[in-house]
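Mods, move this if it's the wrong board.
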Amino acid sequence: MSLAALFGFGSVIFLIVMTGAFIYGLTALRQVADRDNYRPGSAKN
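Not the wrong board. C-alpha coordinates:
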Protein backbone atom coordinates (compact mmCIF):
# COMPACT_ATOMS: atom_id res chain seq x y z
CA MET A 1 0.00 0.00 0.00
CA SER A 2 1.20 3.48 -0.74
CA LEU A 3 1.76 6.05 1.95
CA ALA A 4 -1.26 8.05 0.77
CA ALA A 5 -3.52 5.00 1.04
CA LEU A 6 -2.25 4.25 4.54
CA PHE A 7 -2.81 7.86 5.57
CA GLY A 8 -6.35 7.85 4.17
CA PHE A 9 -7.18 4.58 5.90
CA GLY A 10 -5.75 5.85 9.18
CA SER A 11 -7.71 9.08 8.89
CA VAL A 12 -10.98 7.19 8.44
CA ILE A 13 -10.26 4.94 11.42
CA PHE A 14 -9.29 7.98 13.51
CA LEU A 15 -12.53 9.80 12.66
CA ILE A 16 -14.62 6.73 13.53
CA VAL A 17 -12.86 6.25 16.88
CA MET A 18 -13.04 9.93 17.83
CA THR A 19 -16.73 10.12 16.91
CA GLY A 20 -17.41 7.13 19.16
CA ALA A 21 -15.42 8.67 21.99
CA PHE A 22 -17.29 11.98 21.62
CA ILE A 23 -20.69 10.27 21.71
CA TYR A 24 -19.61 8.20 24.72
CA GLY A 25 -18.47 11.36 26.50
CA LEU A 26 -21.77 13.13 25.85
CA THR A 27 -23.69 10.11 27.15
CA ALA A 28 -21.57 9.93 30.30
CA LEU A 29 -22.03 13.66 30.95
CA ARG A 30 -25.78 13.35 30.47
CA GLN A 31 -25.96 10.48 32.95
CA VAL A 32 -24.04 12.51 35.53
CA ALA A 33 -26.27 15.54 34.95
CA ASP A 34 -29.42 13.43 35.32
CA ARG A 35 -28.10 11.75 38.46
CA ASP A 36 -27.25 15.08 40.10
CA ASN A 37 -30.49 16.72 38.90
CA TYR A 38 -28.39 19.35 37.17
CA ARG A 39 -30.87 19.83 34.33
CA PRO A 40 -34.30 20.81 35.71
CA GLY A 41 -37.16 18.74 34.37
CA SER A 42 -34.94 16.02 32.92
CA ALA A 43 -34.85 13.62 35.89
CA LYS A 44 -37.56 11.03 36.20
CA ASN A 45 -39.31 11.41 39.56
